Backbone:
């Protein structure tokens, strides 16, 4: 009786600790970023995966939205490439 309850307790404790960690937040941001890129790809390319002639010319709003989508990724990579200088 003791071991199954202890196993449940340890499992729940590890799930709670990992859920509140910073690594889960980073993973969640990466998943949300990938989902946004996937949706952008589907909206621009459709199911065929290739852009049609009318969709090759991007307007200002499309360029700005892609830049705003990639800006957090650049900051994320920059945080890991920092040499400890502030």
Residues:
């Amino acid at each position: 009786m003791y071991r199954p309850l202890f196993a449940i307790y340890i499992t729940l404790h590890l799930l709670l600790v990992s859920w509140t960690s910073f690594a889960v937040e980073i993973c969640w941001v990466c998943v949300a970023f990938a989902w946004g890129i996937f949706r952008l790809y589907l909206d621009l390319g459709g199911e065929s995966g290739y852009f049609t002639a009318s969709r090759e010319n991007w307007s200002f709003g499309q360029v700005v939205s892609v830049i705003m989508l990639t800006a957090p990724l650049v900051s994320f990579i920059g945080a890991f490439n920092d040499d400890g200088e502030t």
Notes: The chain has three helices and no strands. The CA atoms of residues 4 and 10 lie 10 Å apart.
